[in-house]
Model the fold of this input.
Amino acid sequence: MSADTPPPADTARASDADRDAVVARLQDALADGRIDFEEFDKRMSAVTESRTFGALAPLTADLPDVRPQSRESLTLRSKGSTLVREGRWKPSRDLVVDASLCKVRLDLTEADWPGPEIAISASLAHCTLTVVVSDDTDVDTGEVEFVFSSSKGRSDAVTQPRRSVRIRGRVQHGKIQVSRPSDPKGFFRRRAR
Done:
């Protein structure tokens, strides 16, 4: 076999990321009750010993792929500038915001959501994060560590949420604002910019 010819798919070497993907599917299957702890342990041992795609494939062959299509995270970084995402954009299920000395505005009202929940991991320093959501979206900032910072806006629980945004992380000398279309003063003032 020449160096330019790829090996057959089942004998190609699997990477750590490939093994991690199999582990995630096995964990989901265990959580869903598709496999029991004994089966999970057997398959996990096989994952750690697997070196090729051919060895990994049978470990999840009998499990449905129920994971969302877009599980990867999207990282938004900004330093000293304004970062805006609005209109029809595609946030990932796990959204990372790493920003300092700036303003970040994430308008999720028209976004193409990957599922019913978006988790935002925020690392903010001297920064304002504004999250615009519809009235049927619950926003939880309970896992945020605020250091000389604040949270403003209506982040109260929605009685029957259709979607949810969970924000976690750390905010230093900044703030997180939650805005909704039903809050005309804040929504339209910011929208007009």
